[in-house]
Fold each of these.
Amino acid sequence: MTGRLQPLRERHVLLGHGSGGKMSAELVQSVFLPAFENPILAALNDQAAVSVGGARLALTTDSFVVSPRFFPGGDIGRLAVNGTVNDLAVGGAQPLFLSAAFIVEEGLPVEELRRVAESMAAAAHEAGVQIVTGDTKVVERGAADGLFITTAGVGLIPPGRDLGPHRIRPGDVILVNGPIGDHGVAILTLRHEFDFGLSLASDTAALNGLTEAILSAGGGGVRAMRDPTRGGVAASLNEWAQAAGVQILLDEAQVPVRDEVRAVCELLGIEPYNVANEGKLLVAVAAEVASAVLAAMRAHPLGREAAVVAEVQEGEAGMVFVRTQVGGTRPLEYPSGEQLPRIC
Amino acid sequence: MTGRLQPLRERHVLLGHGSGGKMSAELVQSVFLPAFENPILAALNDQAAVSVGGARLALTTDSFVVSPRFFPGGDIGRLAVNGTVNDLAVGGAQPLFLSAAFIVEEGLPVEELRRVAESMAAAAHEAGVQIVTGDTKVVERGAADGLFITTAGVGLIPPGRDLGPHRIRPGDVILVNGPIGDHGVAILTLRHEFDFGLSLASDTAALNGLTEAILSAGGGGVRAMRDPTRGGVAASLNEWAQAAGVQILLDEAQVPVRDEVRAVCELLGIEPYNVANEGKLLVAVAAEVASAVLAAMRAHPLGREAAVVAEVQEGEAGMVFVRTQVGGTRPLEYPSGEQLPRIC
């Protein structure tokens, strides 16, 4: 079995269609792309690049349905702001303005809504963006689960920046800014009330400072950036491999994973590569700028544990492989189905 | 009792906080404005005007939770596109790009999602906008009611345009482009399975062609535009009266209302002024351009029944009155509480 997409077979929407993995991609390819046909959407980046009045803008949106709404390291509000900031930043844009739309279930404590709003305001302040417009809808009890937030964002793409999987080519290397899997495992641990005596927190963070540092260090040698959220590193690398028509070889020994995350994943039989991150960045760069970019990442508070984790090869186009710690090689599939619903 | 806002007293969010009326405004004033404090949001227009890379942009967002999702004249998808197009257009912006985020309940038929996507695509095509980025989240059965859609939009504000309630002054007149209350009454009729033998349809429409015609005809004499959606004409006029510090006198005899809408409203004891519209426009203009603007509206397919319906007066700042058909005058309150939940 390969990671390649199939036509949608399901007649009803399943949780897996929201996984950020293969089923999500199949839903988008089958339902949304044919309807909204346009070259900007078809590029299927996490942000769209458009020209408005002479300015190059990036636009993005995400809904947040995370459960529970408060967790170690953050909450639904902080996630909503950082997630949208990051989708702009990985497109090379400087995030500027956000909108925030709230769907509230009747009965939600006003105090909780206030806490979420304050958390969003703090996250926006830290990221240097402004929340400038919004909307609130209230639905009757039972018609929503507490609170859903949809943020959209606008950023400015400075002249000359061109990032995206179309620029990835054999010989490039891929870096990550730190340990993977923290967000997903923190939520999972909380939701299932595991008590491992662990202190895991979500990694939610605004990455726009880090992306600017990377672009300063790597210049035109920076090919593409992605924040591996739903579907994890596995989904992002598979999307890159397919979009760029290359093979990617991930070196397991180089991928930072916290011991606690590894332990929970092993216990539950899941791959850290499939787990959502909310403050991690994959960066594909030309080999000649790799060490400069790595140094810039390590000099940034959100990149202290940065590492080169993968190389881009000709090989089998569209495939991702893992070089395991014992020296073998296995395919890293596009995550299929839903392992962690409502992780963000 | 006046229509003035009070501090929020409720400890839990109620349906009325999503009504688009007084309770909605109190929630925003109490929870969101203090947290997201910035002058752009504080203007509380349905769109934010910002400068990006030398271009003046309008940004807006709305969530759509309408029930049922399909109705005479439209569906949740068409509503989501037109609603966001209209929020940009009434700010004097030319709508350009939309994002669309879907929160789907597990089990929704894929075919229904496809119908909604196709309807959005058709509405976007008609309005001349492109849907360029999106997101899909799936929540488990019972955690949402079928499908919620959040659209956000970006438009370009041509140089020299300055619209908003700050420009409304005594002596101005207010026009509407056609009969009010159609959308809300169509949904209500359908939801309650009334059978009046009526053929009421939602008025959902993209108003950007009409707003451009109005701005061409009225130039700088066009003070402000609003699409009276949730909370209806009553909420929009009260917001204008308060924001501009003026009194508004609505002439009941001049307000177009279909006989069927009037009949349903009388039966249910609701005011057509409080009912949501999805293709209506209120325009405040200087008296000297009123006839030119009226003629331009009537020449447009969405303005054939346009009328001058109100005048702006010094009087009692922040108040709206209705001159009734029998010659009396009564206050038109800011709608309080929720009459028609999930109308959009």
Note: Residues 222 and 285 of chain A are 4 Å apart (CA to CA).
Amino acid sequence: MIIEHNGGRGFEVSVNTVYVGRKPILNYVLACMTLFKSGANEVLIKARGRAISRAVDVVEVMRNRFMPDIKVEDIKIGTEEMVSEDTNTPTNISTIEIKITK
Amino acid sequence: MIIEHNGGRGFEVSVNTVYVGRKPILNYVLACMTLFKSGANEVLIKARGRAISRAVDVVEVMRNRFMPDIKVEDIKIGTEEMVSEDTNTPTNISTIEIKITK
């Protein structure tokens, strides 16, 4: 699990990002909650490919069980090109970004 | 096996809705394109659980390969409660609704 802190560089708004992968959902829920508890007002949840469903689960579990006050501010979907190391061929993979605020 | 639908908007009958399940992505892409070609200006793509990733794929493949003009108008995520026939226990499942327009 990668928690990326975009530390305060001048006037740039700090965005806290949680990348969702293959770990249990609650790991990511905890990561998001930790960011909120440590003062973040906004958390960005990102995922690619099959982890997209899990990213939605993270938001829904957090909203339904732990932090009913959070709001889904914005959801973006997109495509990224990845290059496989084995075959060296580019593959398109879908992405999602869910911005939640408290 | 999940059979009973309990609340939520999942089974709402709508002419321009495509439910994404376990079939190949191109099946759903074709379904959406058929709706657009037959006069719809708006298509709603819905999915639950693991099919959520596939629903995003459907939109991205359609946008990148077949209909570059479509726009993602709105994305909503939510939770539905489903009752398993075997255990009779309610389970929460995440949902997504992606509204696309041309």
Note: The first strand of chain A starts at residue 3 and ends at 5.
